[in-house]
Structure formats: C-alpha cells, structure tokens
Automatic annotation (TrEMBL):
Record organism: Mya arenaria
Protein name: MEGF6-like protein
Keyword Hydrolase: no
Domain F5/8 type C: start-end pairs: 25-145
Lineage, opening ranks: Eukaryota, Metazoa, Spiralia, Lophotrochozoa, Mollusca
Superkingdom in the source lineage: Eukaryota
C-alpha cells in the first residue's frame, strides 16, 4: 500500500519511492573524466586516487561550479540525497539545490551548511520539478557529487500538483485519490459524480450512483433524484411508491402516495390505472363510463 510522507488517514508508514533517473546531467566544467553523469551511475565509493574518484563522482575544476539535471518530465520530489566526499569536506558541502518546472530554475529550496557532507533533505510539501540544479557556496572550485538520489512522493491525500496546492476532484476516496502530477482520478469517480478524468460534475439529470449508471425513478413534479443515493427527497409522482419511486401502486390503489382506492367497478374486476384511477377497459355492468371514467357512478 502506498502511504504518505507524513500523516495520512489511510496509512501509518511513510511513503516514498526511488526515482529512476533517466534524464541528462551537465556541469559547469569537468575535472579529468569526472563528468556530470558520474553522479547518477549508482557508484558512491570515491576510492583513493583520481581514477577511482572519477569512476564514482562528478567533479568540477573552475570557480562558481554547478551541476544540472533535466529529468525530461515533471516529477513530485519528496526527498533529495547527495552523497559527497568525506575526506575533502569543502568539496561536497555548502550545497544549494534548486528545483523547478521551468528551465530558468533559480528557486533555491535546499541549502546544506559547510559542516555537512552532501545533503539529505525531505521536502514538505513535496515539490513538482523537472529541472534540478546544484551549486556550491563553500568557495570550492572542485565541487564533488558522488551520487544524487531523488525520491518521489505523494501529496496529502486529496491534493496534487505544484507544491501540492491542487485539489483532486470528486475521486474515489482511496490513497492516492488522484495523479500527483495532473490530478486524474486514479480509481474513478466518487459515487454520484461523473466525467473523468477529474470527476468534477454530478451525474446528469435522471441518473445517480456509482458511475452514474442507475436511472432515477418518478420523483414528484419531475424533480431529479438524489445524485448519490437515488432517493426522491419530496416523494413520488402520482401512481409511484418506494424510496426510489420506481414501483407503481399496488392493485386497487392509485394516486399520490398510492393513498386512493380504485372504485372497484372496473370491467372484469381489473384494477384502475395506478396514476389516474381511470378504468382503462371500461366499467362493470351498472356503471356509467361515459360520465365517470373511474366507474364510480351508477346509471341513473
Ligand atoms: Ca556515482
């Protein structure tokens, strides 16, 4: 089960998943063969010489160093971890990280201090980002990043998107309700709501319930039924009964709430019409249909 980074009513444990980075990394300059991609190759051990260093780590060699990554698409980042070089602390400390959905990307959101090697920072709320940039304010020319790890997260349940400020539509109440990037309901619409992907509309008139698949009954005055449970809040139209107003009156009864008795004089013992009380096939002998279609009047 997927859970949140922090409190969520569906889960008790934290939720995050490792982002499998497929994007392209670049950096301001290269020290030997310590290119930008070395911070994404899964190797963290710096070894004891330059060859081993350049197997595992990216290293710059000029002032004002930076390392940048384009993920190729937007992701909701819940944590960033940078593995640095412990034997040359200033080369992997004072790191600034900016994350953005636009390439201009100068919005610093994480800053490590000069006593910290690399960094490991949870983002609360998670941050929607495509472009990641790491710079150093320690004054070094040789910025060393041995591995950069990103972890995807989910917003608080019911939220999505940039800084988790978007609100899911009327999605089914599961976790997560909607896609963390675009808000698409992941398990369909809440009962009584329609029009995926975001489920913002109630069912069309005359339909209700799960997937709006149920048809309303005959509610009083043609009102629509409750879009969630199908009940007719003001009762049924003449001749109908039940919570859903989809049953006609029992034999011998008719009218509003089925409270009126048929005349009992319909032809051949038939019941009158459930709505109007009319004897549709005429009257039994002795009653005058031409002046009273309900057959309540005897011939004079
Ligand atoms: Ca590496």
């Amino acid at each position: 089960m997927k859970c949140l980074l922090w409190h969520d009513k569906h889960c008790n444990q934290d939720y995050e998943e490792t982002l499998n980075i497929t994007g392209a990394a670049t950096q301001s300059s290269n020290y030997l063969g310590c290119t930008a991609d070395k911070a994404l190759n899964g190797l963290e051990d710096q070894g004891s010489d330059d060859a081993e260093l350049c197997q595992a780590c990216s290293v710059t060699n000029a002032a004002n160093p930076w390392w940048a990554l384009d993920l190729g698409g937007e992701h909701l980042i819940g944590r960033i971890q940078v593995i640095g070089r412990p034997d040359h602390m200033s080369q992997s400390s004072g790191l600034q990280v900016s994350m953005s959905i636009s390439p201009s990307n100068n919005d610093v959101i994480v800053l490590s201090n000069n006593n910290e090697i690399g960094l490991n920072q949870q983002l609360n709320p998670p941050r929607l980002a495509r472009y990641i940039k790491i710079t150093s304010v320690s004054g070094t020319s040789n910025m060393v990043l041995c591995e950069v790890k990103l972890f995807e997260s989910e917003c608080n349940n019911g939220m999505y998107g940039y800084n988790c400020t978007g609100k899911c539509g009327h999605c089914k109440d599961v976790f997560p309700q909607c896609d963390r990037i675009n808000g698409t309901c992941l398990q369909g619409c809440e009962t009584g709501y329609a029009t995926p992907p975001r489920c913002l509309q109630t069912c069309n008139n005359s339909f209700y319930g799960e997937n709006c698949a149920q048809r309303c009954g005959n509610c009083l005055d043609g009102r629509r039924c409750d879009f969630k449970n199908g009940s007719c809040p003001r009762g049924c139209s003449s001749g109908y009964r039940g919570v859903y107003c989809n049953q006609t009156c029992p034999a011998g009864m008719y009218g509003n709430s089925c409270q009126r008795n048929c005349s009992g004089n319909c032809f051949n013992g038939l019941s009158c019409h459930f709505s109007t009380g009319i004897c549709s096939y005429g009257c039994t002998a002795g009653f005058n249909y031409s002046i009273d279609t309900s057959c309540g009047t005897e011939y004079g």
